[in-house]
């Protein structure tokens, strides 16, 4: 099974010069915890709710004036839509990440893959349990 078979197709993005506050509002509106950061449709980073708290709020930044590019995770791990899901699951496990941007062969963002996608459409509970356990371990 390939990533494209279980991923969330399409993804809302924010620009690197978007304010962190605007990005957080977009996350709230769409009930998501991460947004890809794209510059002219090319993935340049990812901003997560955790980035906002750890690199923004905890440092006392003015989130209305702070740009996403200042606190995002630059050069995030990503995968191809035609990648094998078990291979990507192992990558997510090793890197202890819960979400990963999905690119096509032209390096354009085509979606996101999250642990939740494995629960809804994935191949088996054993693989899911490993990913969930590993992703959660990062935050213990």
Content-based structural category: alpha+beta
Instruction: Give the helix proportion (percent range).
Output: 25-40%
Q: How many helix segments?
A: 6
CATH topology: CBS-domain
How many structural domains are formed by the residues?
Answer: 1
- The top level CATH class name: Alpha Beta
Number of strands: 7
- What profile does the largest beta sheet have? 4 strands, mixed
CATH homology superfamily name: CBS-domain
CATH architecture classification name: Roll
Strand-residue proportion: 15-25%
* Strands in their spatial order, largest beta sheet: 1-7-6-5
- Mean pLDDT score: 87
Distance between the termini: 31 Å
Uncertain segments: none
Tell me, briefly, the overall form: globular
The sequence of SSEs as H and E is EHEEHHEEHEEHH
Q: Give the C-alpha Rg.
A: 15 Å
What does this structure look like?
The chain contains 6 helices and 7 strands; from the N terminus they run E-H-E-E-H-H-E-E-H-E-E-H-H. With about 140 residues, it is of the alpha+beta class. The longest helix is centred in the last third of the chain and has 13 residues, at about 125-135. The model has no long low-confidence stretch (mean pLDDT about 85). It has helices at about 20-30, 50-55, 70, 85-95, 115-120, 125-135, and strands at about 10, 35-40, 40-50, 75, 80, 100-105, 110-115. A hairpin with a 5-residue loop joins strand 6 and strand 7 (about 110-115). It has one domain (about 5-135): CBS-domain, CATH 3.10.580.
